[in-house]
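Consider the following input, taken from an annotated entry for Nucleotide exchange factor GrpE (Thermomonospora curvata).
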Amino acid sequence: MLLHVSRAQDLPSASSAEARSADGRDGATGPPEPERPPHTEPHAGPPQPALDIDRLTAELARLAAALEREHERAAHREAVIDRLHADVQTLRRGELQTLFEPVRAVLYRLHDLTRREARRWADDPPEPRHAAALLATVADEIAEALARTGVERFTARPGDPFDPARHRPVAVETVEDPALEGAVISVCSDGFERADRVVRKAEVRIGRPPTPDRDDPADSAPHPRSDRPTGE
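Applying the prediction step yields:
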């Protein structure tokens, strides 16, 4: 009985000691301990360097594909340009051949005409008037060939006023008629024009008035002069 009472008395003491211990902790005047952050596992993100390499590889592949497409376009353009150049050259040669065809036709006729007349003249020389007619025919044939290429012949006549835009003077002749001064006296060659533009001027001789004869005694005699000094 005494043993149980003794234990019962000791129990409150222990409880009181625990309470005091708890009160002592709560009432401590020292600084509070800093709170420790909760322990967490590090965030496991994707490997950044690997992503950068993949992105660069994809970008390089895209640029390489774009460059290849540009090379293909450039090659296609070069092929088109070469083909167009070949077509233009073919058309140009065809146009030139078409342009030369009427000239060839006239030259064929001139060749046959001159060869035939040469054989005939070898056996029977013609009179001068016949030769002049033949040469005039040849000149007309050539003018016709030039006309088919767009170049027209124009002629000058004696007495026409001299036109520097259409005439080229090759000589000057003295004329007594004042009306022929500065006019065409004779024609050396015809002129040619294309679309109202002179491509070759007609060669002509121009008339001029006679110059005073320097051997005339009246002109060569010395003029009388006064022996009186100047200023008197």
